[in-house]
Design goal:
single chain; 4 strands; 12% strand; alpha+beta; rod-shaped; 2 domains
Length: 293
């Protein structure tokens, strides 16, 4: 096995190990960044919905208080404002969603689906938890959901959701008295759930990963070519010349020219040592010839 082949085998092994480790850690890093990006988007979206809710409570509800007495105004309901805000957002980003999923809602639109009900029940069984993050499969790919419990902490909520007899008559006229009642103080009745698609960030992470690994492979290849060129001129060629000279000397050609040596590296030192050995051998043979004469 030639020196060049041994060198390239070791170099190839080092390259494969290096690319493998770089692939493992870079993909994990990029995937984690993609998930963090999606989570940041979910938090911003949830906070936006909460801001709309707060605006509804502080600005819209007082303005419509008088009209609310004559006819129920859904604009006074914080969940309604948040839902309308998200509907506008979904015109451009249809895969983004915000839901105030409730087990027993006044408005049937807010009734929790099967997977949303599982989240609500999880909060009921884990009352100390404030947030739940997860990933679920959708028709357009994986989506991350960020949820927070809807807990009755304000006694004023029970005016509309405690018993039908205490609810505003205009609300009963709009939604009836069958749903949205019987809520209790401190009870988790639903969950605010934001869903954000992960396909685009994950695809972007994969593309970045392949570009990075491709560039790394090209860099390794260029380094390998440069190292082979250096190996050829710095080691292999001088060694071949020394090997040829040694072969000639071993066949008795002691009058061959000495090696041309330049530099101070190990190969140059080896060449100088070879020349000294050549001279010493030539002198020893000459002395033997003179003795025999």
């Amino acid at each position: 096995m030639s020196l060049r082949l041994k060198f390239n085998l070791v170099l190839s092994l080092a390259m494969l190990v290096g690319i493998g480790l770089a692939s493992f850690f870079s993909y994990r890093f990029l995937e984690r960044n993609a998930r963090d990006e999606v989570l940041d988007a979910a938090r911003i979206m949830l906070q936006s919905a909460l801001s709309v809710r707060q605006y509804t409570v502080e600005e819209i509800r007082p303005l419509l208080a008088l009209q609310q007495k004559r006819a129920f105004r859904p604009q006074t309901v914080p969940a309604y404002g948040a839902r309308k805000y998200i509907e506008q957002l979904q015109k451009k980003y249809p895969d983004y969603s915000y839901r105030e999923a409730t087990l027993n809602p006044t408005n049937p639109v807010d009734r929790a689906t099967a997977w949303e009900a599982d989240i609500v029940n999880w909060y009921r069984n884990n009352s100390e938890e404030k947030e739940l993050i997860g990933v679920r499969s959708t028709a357009t790919g994986p989506a991350m959901y960020l949820s927070r419990p809807i807990r009755i902490t304000n006694p004023a909520c029970l005016t509309c959701h405690g018993a039908p007899s205490t609810a505003p008559p205009t609300m009963i006229d709009s939604y009836g008295s069958a749903n949205g009642f019987g809520w209790k103080q401190g009870e988790v009745v639903g969950a605010q759930i934001v869903t954000v698609p992960m396909s685009v960030p994950l695809d972007r992470a994969k593309n970045t990963f392949f570009v990075f690994i491709g560039a790394l492979a090209v860099v390794f290849l260029l380094v390998a070519i440069l190292l082979n060129i250096m190996l050829e001129y710095v080691i292999i060629r001088p060694v071949k010349v020394m090997s040829r000279k040694a072969s000639e000397i071993s066949m008795g050609a002691l009058n061959v020219a000495e090696l041309e040596v330049s530099g101070r590296d190990e190969i140059a030192q080896l060449g100088r040592s070879f020349n000294r050995m050549h001279r010493s051998l030539a002198n020893a043979v000459k002395m033997l010839d003179e003795t025999d004469s």
